[in-house]
Design goal:
The complex is a heterodimer of chains A (about 400) and B (about 160).
Chain A (H helix, E strand, L loop, with lengths): L12 E4 L7 H7 L5 E4 L2 H6 L1 H7 L11 E2 L8 H13 L4 E6 L1 H16 L9 E2 L10 E5 L11 E6 L4 E6 L7 E4 L9 H20 L5 H23 L4 H21 L3 H13 L3 H32 L1 H6 L5 H14 L20 H8 L14 H11 L1
Parallel strand pairs in A: 1-9, 2-3, 2-4, 4-6, 5-8, 6-9
Antiparallel strand pairs in A: 7-8
Chain B lengths: L1 H31 L1 H9 L5 E6 L5 E7 L2 E7 L7 E5 L2 H8 L5 H6 L3 E4 L2 H18 L2 H7 L10 H9 L2
Parallel strand pairs in B: 1-4
Antiparallel strand pairs in B: 1-2, 2-3, 4-5
The chains are: A alpha/beta (about 400), B alpha+beta (about 160).
Chain lengths: ~400, ~160
């Protein structure tokens, strides 16, 4: 059924495939960039991913000497404001983000500060409130297959002083182009592959079912789920396989496009709170929470989850399962699907992830104030969130 | 053309009237509903919230100043810590006449928000509590899931709200 009104936008050029990295200088050149700043993290600088990127600029009249590697595991307002100072001081004119969600979200925040002309990202908090200014060319090379941040209009940026993760929502956060090159995700260890892959699964499931869902975002979500259930277990077992890696990169990007246009729900609201309060990595939080939150939403979403049984479990299981049981079967499938990754060290309970029982109250309080709560089909109370957390403990 | 303009003016006027009532409702609910009090207090002692309709209003300003709850109609350009701005009067009318919930309004991109999104959830809960007092259940159950329980009965709420 069509929603009464919806909006959909994905303006990001997607360059996907083997040796895709090589086309970055051409794209930046076309956008008029001469001195981009590269944002990445210390690990990627060490593992050689940064060198691979810098090498493709050989012979081009583009100066890639400005590199910032000191990005914290959770993108923070302090890092963004610091990099904005460097960007201006060094005369940079474009941004390249090489990394996972934290690096990409930092780059998005940086672009906002530079384009809007200020010096503090906090000035630009809000929802769809940024006026279009002169664009700073912006390229994203994801090194994980999960966040989908390369194609989303959302940035989650931590405010360490308040111990919360803040959301920025604007179409201006969308990069100009993104490069999905299997070479850049091959170094991910199995645990991170599983962790980030489940994050993509959560994006797709929530995008398919949240209040803001629409036929276009649901199409992306549906296709992403099929790719994830087919390729994630294979990519965890054999990370050196180009096909598996590329399939997961595409799945994460599609799930990102889906949730950028549908938003996410209670799994993310609680997940952000788990990150802010108990410092649980985002993908880990998603893996633990998804089955429990699906159970919470099941009464309202039985039919939608039932539809998802097809891409989740395949045509045979879908056809064999009576219509009224498909929703519950989808939850059961997701629980088992995630459980298989315990073998590579993915925790499936909050206690195993290091959360303390006395933190549950603060996590619930933060979760109900997260913007993602708003589009969940059921508005969860603090008490209900505590129940979910206890079940996941 | 003139008829259309008059129609728009009427709709803006109607939204303005409901906004005034909503403001009074928030002030009265602050007195009689602990949940609303807690949410407003959690926003801080000098936090102002403006709800407006682009491009000219009407606009409602509420919040706390010097530790006291207040609400008043204000100009379109009045500054506030958090500004929730409807993109047009039709979307605002749907919301203010109980035909669209806040979640649905957000999902339909009916408004923009400037300011700390972390505080916005408290504002949505305040609106839900007050709307659940102001509107009958057959309306609220269409726009909220779940519908918050009333703190007082509807008649008492309207009387209290009008004479506050």
């Amino acid at each position: 059924m069509l929603p009464k009104y919806y909006e959909f936008l994905n303006s990001v050029k997607i360059m996907s495939g083997i040796k895709a990295l090589e086309n970055i200088p051409h794209e930046l050149n076309m956008l008029g960039a001469k001195k981009p700043i590269i944002l990445t993290d210390a690990i990627l600088a060490k593992t050689g991913a940064l060198d691979k990127l810098v090498k493709v600029f050989s012979g081009w009249d583009i100066d890639v000497s400005e590199v910032y590697t000191n990005i914290p595991p959770d993108s923070s307002i302090k890092a963004i404001n610091e990099i904005a100072g460097i960007f201006k001081e060094k005369g940079c004119d474009a941004i390249i983000a090489l990394g996972g969600g934290s690096v990409i979200d930092t780059a998005k925040g940086l672009r906002v500060v530079i384009e809007q002309g200020g010096d503090d990202i906090m000035q630009y908090m809000g929802l769809e409130c940024l006026p279009r200014k002169t664009r700073v060319p912006f390229a994203v090379i994801p090194t994980t297959s999960g966040t989908g941040s390369e194609c989303t209009n959302v940035a989650v940026i931590a405010n360490p002083d308040k111990n919360v993760k803040m959301e920025f929502v604007s179409y201006d956060l969308l990069p100009d182009f993104t490069v999905l090159d299997p070479e850049m995700t091959k170094t991910m260890p199995p645990k991170i592959t599983a962790n980030t892959g489940v994050d993509a699964l959560v994006h797709a499931v929530e995008a398919y079912t949240c209040l803001q869902k629409n036929p276009l975002s649901q199409s992306y979500a549906f296709a992403a789920i099929r790719l994830i259930t087919t390729y994630l277990p294979k990519a965890v077992l054999d990370g050196s396989n180009d096909e598996y890696r590329l399939a997961m990169s595409n799945a994460a990007t599609m799930a990102g496009i889906a949730f950028s246009n549908s938003m996410v729900g209670i799994v993310h609201a609680i997940g952000h709170a788990l990150g802010g309060v108990a410092h649980v990595p985002h993908g880990t939080a998603m893996s633990i929470l998804l089955p429990h939150c699906m159970r919470f939403n099941l009464k309202e979403l039985n039919s939608a989850y039932g539809e998802l049984l097809l891409p989740l479990a395949g045509a045979e299981t879908y056809a064999k399962t009576p219509k009224e049981e498909r929703g519950a079967k989808a939850v059961e499938f997701v629980t088992e699907f995630i459980k298989q990754f315990e073998a590579v060290g993915l925790p499936t309970t909050l206690s195993a992830a290091g959360v303390k029982e006395e933190q549950l109250e603060a996590i619930a309080e933060t979760a109900i104030n997260d913007g993602a709560s708003l589009v969940n089909p059921i508005t969860a109370t603090k008490e209900q969130v505590i129940e979910i957390l206890k079940a996941a403990f | 053309m003139e008829k259309k303009k008059a129609n728009k003016r009427f709709k803006r006027g109607l939204v303005g009237v409901v906004m005034t009532l909503l403001g009074k409702g928030i002030r009265y609910a602050y007195k009689v509903d602990e949940r609303v009090k807690a949410e407003i207090d959690s926003l801080g002692d000098n936090c102002t919230i403006k709800i407006t309709v682009a491009p000219v209003g009407p606009s409602l300003l509420f919040g706390k100043a010097d530790g006291k709850i207040f609400s008043k109609r204000c100009d379109y350009d009045t500054p506030a810590d958090i500004v929730m701005s409807f993109k047009g009067v039709e979307g605002a009318l749907l919301m203010f006449t109980g035909r669209m919930g806040l979640g649905e309004g957000y999902a339909q991109h009916r408004f923009t928000i400037k300011g700390d999104l972390y505080k916005v959830m408290a504002i949505t809960r305040i609106m839900s509590y007050v709307e659940s007092e102001m509107f009958p259940k057959f309306i609220t159950k269409k726009i909220m899931n779940p519908v918050p329980k009333r703190a007082v009965n509807m008649l008492r709420f309207y009387l209290g709200m009008l004479f506050i």
